[in-house]
Design goal:
This protein starts with 13 loop residues before the first strand and ends in a 17-residue tail after the last helix. The protein contains 16 helices and 8 strands. An 8-stranded mixed β-sheet has the order 3-2-1-4-5-6-7-8, with helices on both faces. With 353 residues, it is of the alpha/beta class. The structure holds 1,4-dihydronicotinamide adenine dinucleotide and 1,3-dihydroxyacetonephosphate. 1,4-dihydronicotinamide adenine dinucleotide binds at residues 19-24, 43-44, 60, 89-92, 94, 98, 115-118, 147-149, 289-291, 293.
């Protein structure tokens, strides 16, 4: 593909961020830094009030100063009325309901950018497929990659992937990338939303496995094995769904997997860590406002893989431990007992500079 001058494309000036959790708040801050006018919808009136009065989101992103220019509201119609792009940043299992509401108030033709990571439980659909149904005919993109909200909010150098659903949406992808990029938030464009989304959904489950392994006392060897074999699981599922394995080697696959599997900043990794140290899933989840996507997605990704005849042994082990009460040592022993096999590592096609 020929390189294009992304800065020359004119994109949306006004951006609605739908979802006032940690990631929505950090993305709103990023869009402001990129020079956009930003409105943020938060479900919780106390979040809206804290942003408006104290310039902070103490519930989901404490300690980050938010500028006066960020307008927050719990009125979705008000937030979306003048938007020229909408970022959808609610947890995966709530995305459909929220997207259906957004569809009623977002002006026609305005693109939606999916920023949630997961697969819908009832339907087995990827997030962009859910939004295609909830917001039919909308221009659509997905943004994903290795991005801890707190580090993005702190303006630390970060790179992500933005993929458009249609191959002919080159202009949309480049416009959105240009509109949301900053000197520290670097957006690469892709045309494989399936590969991008499968990476984001499955990596959270593998991160639970890595945290659990560390929690029971295993070290770097075990983590490296889980990351590498976890990547193989992402590639198999992505390919079965029509995605490209090359995408899985990128920021939204390998990049996000590496990040989430090696840091206690990750909610999924730290949930696994707690499990490995003997706490129950219920106790770890009780009373926390933040989402741990890998918990529900251990079920969604394995349900989908079973339907497609794709083997995801690490994700199955996480599902068995978290949802079916299998003791961790048994789940680990079952993984290690699997028949020895050839390591199938095919080379990706050459990557453009
Ligand atoms: N936090 C992070 O560093 C990153 C998160 N993401 C993804 O972004 C998505 C949103 O996550 P966060 O912003 O981190 O959330 P969070 O864990 O900070 O906050 C929970 C969010 O869930 C919303 N929520 C709770 N119940 C709801 C309901 N019934 N209907 C609609 N929304 C409801 C809350 O309003 C809040 O926005 C997730 O899919 C996550 O995987 C992606 C990249 C980075
Ligand atoms: O998606 C994320 C980083 O890219 C956030 O991961 P956690 O939800 O595990 O904190």
């Amino acid at each position: 593909m020929q390189r294009r001058d992304m800065q020359s494309e004119s994109g949306p000036e006004a951006v609605a961020v739908v979802g006032g959790g940690a990631w929505g708040t950090a993305l709103a801050l990023t869009a402001l830094r990129a020079g956009r006018r930003v409105t943020l919808w938060a479900r919780e009136p106390e979040v809206v009030e804290a942003i408006e009065r104290r310039r902070e989101n103490p519930v989901f992103l404490p300690g980050v100063a938010l500028p006066e220019s960020l307008i927050a509201s719990d009125d979705l119609a008000e937030v979306c009325a003048r938007a020229e792009a909408a970022l959808l940043v609610v947890p995966s299992q709530f995305l459909r309901a929220v997207a259906e509401q957004v569809e009623t108030v977002l002006p026609r033709g305005v693109p939606a950018i999916v920023c949630a990571k997961g697969i819908e439980r009832e339907t087995g659909l990827l997030m962009t497929q859910v939004v295609e149904q909830a917001m039919p005919g909308r221009p659509l993109a997905v943004l994903s990659g290795p991005t801890f909200a707190a580090e993005v909010a702190a303006d630390q150098p970060t790179a992500v992937t933005l993929a458009t659903a249609e191959k002919d949406e080159e202009t949309l992808a480049t416009q959105l990338a240009a509109a949301l990029s900053t000197p520290t938030f670097r957006i690469y464009v892709s045309h494989d939303p399936v590969g991008v989304e499968v990476g984001g959904a499955v990596k959270n489950v593998i991160a639970i496995a890595c945290g659990t392994a560390q929690g029971v006392g295993f070290g770097a060897n075990t983590r490296a094995a889980l990351i590498t074999r976890g990547l193989a699981e992402i590639k198999r599922l992505a390919e079965a769904l029509g995605g490209a394995r090359e995408t899985v080697s990128g920021l939204a696959g390998l990049g996000d997997l590496t990040l989430t599997c090696s840091s206690e900043q990750s909610r999924n990794f730290s949930f696994g860590l707690g499990l490995g140290r003997g706490q129950t899933a219920e106790a770890l989840l009780a009373g926390r406002p933040a989402v741990v996507e890998g918990v529900v997605n251990a079920v969604t990704v394995t349900d989908l893989a079973r339907k497609l005849g794709v083997e995801l042994p690490i994700c199955e082990a996480v599902r068995a431990v978290v949802h079916e009460g299998q003791p961790i040592p048994e789940a680990m022993a079952a993984l290690l007992r699997r028949p020895l096999t050839r390591e199938q590592v095919t080379l990706d096609s050459p990557i453009a500079p």
